[in-house]
Write a structure and sequence with these properties.
By secondary structure, the protein is α/β, with parallel strands linked by helices. The protein has helices at 18-33, 60-76, 88-93, 96-100, 116-126, 171-175, 183-196, 228-236, 257-265, 282-288, 294-307, 326-339, 366-389, 408-411, 473-482, and strands at 9-14, 37-38, 48-53, 82-87, 106-108, 130-132, 153-157, 159-160, 179-180, 200-204, 244-248, 272-274, 312-319, 343-348, 395-400, 413-417, 423-427, 442-446, 449-450, 455-457, 466-470.
Length: 517
C-alpha cells in the first residue's frame, strides 16, 4: 500500500441506530480530511475498512466476528490493508476484539471517534494493533468534519448519551451520561447547513426531549432547563430557508405540554412524532424502569392529536420482556388499538449482555414471544392500512427523496415524504428527464391509493400525478453534487434513516437497534 494517504481508499460499514449512522458520516469526514477517498467497489478493494458497531442486539458480537472472519481472508490477499472497529460493541468489548480477531488493526470507542486517523497511522508505523477506549467524551462529535450522503436533509445532534436506566438498554453504559450542546452552536450548525442547500433537519439525541438537563447550573439528571427543547424548536422556526424540522427519539417521561405547543405553533416543525412505548403494561413498564405508565402515555397522544389533528405518531414496542404475562401483552394490544399508531417498530425481546433484564427470572419462552409478536404485527398492519386509507383524496406536498422506491424505474414513479413523514410514490408518466423534479424539490400530489406501508399518487391514464412543482435550493444542491466527482462530494447531507411511516428502508448493514429510548 502506498505511504501517502492521498492514494488510499476507505469504506465505512454501519450497524445500528441513527446515532451510529450519523457517527459514520463523521468517520467518513475524518478519513477524507486525512486524504482518503471512498472506495468504489466495497470492502474487497478498500485500503481501510471501518466497522461501526452496535451492541444492542443479543447476537451483535456474532455478526461482528462473522464479518471480521470474512475480512481476514480479504486482508490476507491485500498486504497493508487496515481494519478498524468502533462504536458501541467496541466500547463494550475493548481488548476482546483483538484477542478474537488479531488481524484487526484499530479498536476505538464511542467517545473518541475523532482519533481514528491518528490510530490508523500509529498502527501502520508501529505495525501493531491500537486499542483506545475512553470512558468519557473526548470532544463533542458535531465539531468533527462530516461527509453527508445527500444534499437536502441532515442530522443535527443536540445531545449525546442518556441519563435513564432502562433495564433492557445498554446504551447509557456505552454512550455515557447526557451531554448537551449549547443552543447557539446547534442553531449555527443548522444555519450553515441551510446555506449549503439543506431544507430539512432532524434533531437527534438518545433522549432528545430531555435536552437542557445540564443547563441552569444543574449538575446532572433532568433538573436543568425543562423548556430548553421547546425553545430550540421555536428557534428553528425562525431560520429562513429551513422548511422542515423533525426530531427523534423523545421519551414520554420528558414529553411536556410546552413541546406540544411548540410543535403545533412552529410552521416548519412537522406534524410527526416517534415516541417509544415499549410496553402497554404498567407492571412491565415498572420492571423496565420506564418512568411513565399507560395512562400518561395515552394522555400525551391525546394532547398531541388535540393540538395537531393530522399528526402521524409512530412507536417502538418490545414483545416478550421477562415476566410479561398474557394479560400484560393484552395491555400492549389495548394501547395499540387506542393510540392508532401510523406505524410501529416491533421487536422481540433479546438479552442485552450487561443489562439488568438479561439476568431477570421468568424469561418468556421463544415460542410464546413469537406468537405474541405475530399477533401484534397483524394488529398494527391492520391499523396502519386503515390510517393510510384516510389519506386517499388528500393533496399533500412532498419533499422528493432519493432512492426510496425499489420499483420506481419500472413503474415510472418517484418517491417523496409528506409532512407527516409518510412515504408516497408518485407517477411522473412520460415527463421528460429535464422536467422531472429532483431530490430536494417539492411537489404537490393527490393520494390515490393506500397500502399499509406506503401511499401512491398516480395520474390519470398513467400520466403525471404532479399538480405543482416547486424547484428549490435543495434541489439545486443535489444537482450540483451529481456533477461533482465522487471523491469531491465532501459535505453533502444524509438521507434520513429516522423511524418513518412506511416500510422501513434498510440502511447499509444496519438494524433498527438503539432507537429504544
Amino acid at each position: 500500500m502506498p505511504d501517502t494517504a492521498t492514494d488510499k481508499t476507505y469504506i465505512v460499514r454501519t450497524y445500528g441506530c441513527q446515532m451510529n449512522v450519523h457517527d459514520s458520516e463523521r468517520l467518513s469526514g475524518l478519513l477524507e480530511g486525512a486524504g482518503y477517498v471512498r472506495a468504489a467497489d466495497g470492502a474487497s478493494e478498500a485500503d481501510v475498512v471501518v466497522l461501526n458497531t452496535c451492541a444492542v442486539r443479543e447476537n451483535a458480537d456474532n455478526r461482528l466476528y462473522g464479518n471480521l472472519g470474512h475480512l481476514a481472508s480479504v486482508k490476507a490477499g491485500r498486504p497493508g490493508m487496515r481494519i478498524a472497529v468502533g462504536g458501541c460493541l467496541a466500547q463494550k468489548d475493548r481488548g476482546e476484539i483483538t484477542r478474537r480477531a488479531p488481524w484487526v488493526d484499530v479498536v476505538f470507542g464511542t467517545h473518541n471517534i475523532g482519533a481514528l486517523p491518528v490510530l490508523l497511522e500509529r498502527a501502520r508505523v508501529q505495525d501493531e494493533a491500537q486499542v483506545e477506549i475512553l470512558e468519557s467524551l473526548d470532544v463533542f462529535p458535531s465539531t468533527l468534519p462530516t461527509r453527508r450522503e445527500s444534499a437536502y436533509a441532515a442530522w443535527v445532534s443536540v445531545s449525546v448519551g442518556c441519563n435513564n436506566t432502562c433495564t433492557f438498554c445498554i446504551v447509557p453504559a456505552l454512550r455515557g451520561k447526557e451531554k448537551d450542546r449549547r443552543p447557539g452552536e446547534i442553531l449555527s450548525e443548522i444555519e450553515a447547513l441551510v446555506a449549503e442547500g439543506v431544507c430539512e433537519v432532524t434533531l437527534l439525541g438518545q433522549n432528545v426531549n430531555a435536552y437542557g438537563s445540564e443547563f441552569g447550573g444543574a449538575a446532572n439528571g433532568h433538573s436543568g432547563d425543562r423548556e430548553a427543547f421547546a425553545k430550540l424548536l421555536r428557534a428553528c422556526g425562525r431560520i429562513e430557508g429551513l422548511e422542515r424540522v423533525r426530531f427523534t427519539s423523545p421519551h414520554p417521561r420528558d414529553f411536556t405540554d410546552d413541546v406540544i405547543a411548540a410543535m403545533a405553533e412552529t410552521p416548519n416543525v412537522m406534524p410527526q412524532l416517534h415516541m417509544p412505548l415499549q410496553s402497554g403494561s404498567d407492571t412491565v413498564l415498572r420492571a423496565m424502569r420506564r418512568s411513565y405508565r399507560q395512562d400518561r402515555y395515552l394522555g400525551i397522544i391525546e394532547r398531541v392529536r388535540a393540538a395537531m389533528p393530522d399528526a402521524a405518531i409512530t412507536t417502538d414496542i418490545i414483545v416478550g420482556f421477562p415476566g410479561e404475562t398474557e394479560e400484560d401483552f393484552e395491555q400492549t394490544m389495548h394501547v395499540v388499538r387506542e393510540a392508532r399508531f401510523s406505524a410501529a417498530f416491533t421487536f422481540q425481546y433479546s438479552k442485552r449482555p450487561g443489562t439488568p433484564a438479561a439476568t431477570m427470572e421468568e424469561q418468556v419462552p421463544k415460542e410464546v414471544v413469537q406468537a405474541r409478536y405475530e399477533r401484534l404485527v397483524a394488529l398494527q398492519e391492520e391499523i396502519s392500512w386503515e390510517e393510510n386509507k384516510k389519506q386517499v383524496g388528500r393533496t399533500v406536498e412532498l419533499l422528493v427523496a432519493e432512492g426510496e422506491g425499489r420499483k420506481n424505474g419500472e413503474t415510472r414513479r418517484m418517491s417523496g415524504r409528506a409532512p407527516d413523514n409518510r412515504l408516497v410514490h408518485f407517477g411522473v408518466g412520460d415527463t421528460a428527464s429535464a422536467d422531472l423534479p429532483r431530490p430536494g424539490d417539492m411537489v404537490s400530489v393527490e393520494i390515490t391509493y393506500a397500502a399499509p406501508h406506503h401511499l401512491n399518487a398516480d395520474g390519470a391514464d398513467g400520466g403525471s400525478a404532479i399538480k405543482a412543482l416547486r424547484r428549490t435550493r435543495s434541489g439545486d444542491a443535489w444537482q450540483a453534487r451529481q456533477e461533482q466527482p465522487e471523491s469531491e462530494r465532501g459535505k453533502a447531507v444524509v438521507t434520513l434513516g429516522m423511524p418513518s411511516i412506511g416500510k422501513p428502508a434498510a440502511q447499509p448493514e444496519a438494524e433498527n437497534a438503539c432507537g429504544v429510548c
